[in-house]
Amino acid sequence: MRILGIESSCDETGVALVDASGSATPRLLGHALHSQIEMHQAYGGVVPELASRDHIRRVLPLTDAVLAQAGLPLSAVDAVAYTRGPGLAGALLVGSGVACALGFALGRPVVGVHHLEGHLLSPFLSADPPEFPFVALLVSGGHSQLMRVDGVGRYELLGETIDDAAGEAFDKSAKLLGLPYPGGPALARLALQGDPLAYKFPRPLLHSGDLDFSFAGLKTAVLTQVKRLAHARLDGPATLHLADPLSAQQKADVAASVQAAIVEVLVKKSMMAIRQTGLRRLVVAGGVGANALLREQLGSACAKAGVRVHYPELHLCTDNGAMIALAGGMRAQAGLALAGGAGSDGYRFDVRPRWPLSELGLPVTAA
């Protein structure tokens, strides 16, 4: 089964073609991605209306590029998958509208995919794919979750953030340091030049005994430290006026210390989830999963515990069409209903800007 996947949930337009035939390992046949980072940098964050308009401009040329990579005509597509949610409503409508139009034109089924399920299953496209069951650490700009995954659609939430996600903590701390959008990668690059022990930032909920996360307090601690270093004042919730700009080294030290705090919490909670479930396999997915320090420290902790750890390829950590095509194909292979599918309903579609992953699938049955 060749599945065309379309991702348009936020600020990246992704299209990909995945072969998920039978019991064979899924293969990526073609992949194209356009990031809107440059467009949104002037505003310091994503502008939803601009994002939607840009998706409209990009999605069909990207589809043509993917088919050219694969050396296949559009008629070779067996199903079309799109991100149904969660995400920005207008952006989601672009992908869903194009997917259903293509499905109608081809007479092929259409699959509405949960964005987080796409991230969760993306390591199955890597050179070292995992096997079920496993613990999943899902970390991105808007989500920090630990899940037990026993199969496609069989997910149990073990813990999640009660306020800011890890990616938000990276981005908001970067903004306080005056780093460009997107802040997380910029902060990680700057942290390479800093001392992670320079400032002792809090590790929220590190010893709570549960698997939940909280990063809002860390952001507040960073704000307090930056104000102290720069003799700054705060006008309103987000306007920071620096009387004495931080030196380059001070910025690097703050960045390194912030990153160290976030990574320590993610690693400790992940290993706690491994111990509590008794599973011996960990999957890390989502944009923060590309962070080099997180990969290094998780790799070390897992090696000591005799646990296998799996990541998607770096270019598949951020939002992309490949993970959407893969998730649609794996759901079909598992014999699950095509969530949000429109093929039997006149290709009518809707989107779910807010869509808990827990609504997706089957209950977990412990072995």
Describe this structure in words.
With 367 residues, the chain is an alpha/beta fold. It has two domains: 2-123 and 317-359, ATPase, nucleotide binding domain (Nucleotidyltransferase, domain 5, 2-Layer Sandwich), CATH 3.30.420.40; 128-311, Nucleotidyltransferase, domain 5. Helices cover 40% and strands 19% of the residues. The chain contains ten helices and twelve strands. The chain has helices at residues 37-41, 48-70, 89-106, 115-121, 166-176, 183-191, 216-230, 248-277, 292-305, 321-333; strands spanning 2-7, 12-19, 27-35, 79-85, 110-114, 134-139, 144-151, 154-160, 233-235, 239-241, 281-285, 308-310. The strands form three sheets. The protein has a five-stranded mixed β-sheet, sandwiched between helices. A five-stranded mixed β-sheet has the order 8-7-6-11-12, sandwiched between helices. β4, α3 (89-106) and β5 (110-114) form a beta-alpha-beta unit. The protein starts with a strand and ends in a 34-residue tail after the last helix. Residues 339-344 and 363-367 have low confidence and may be disordered.
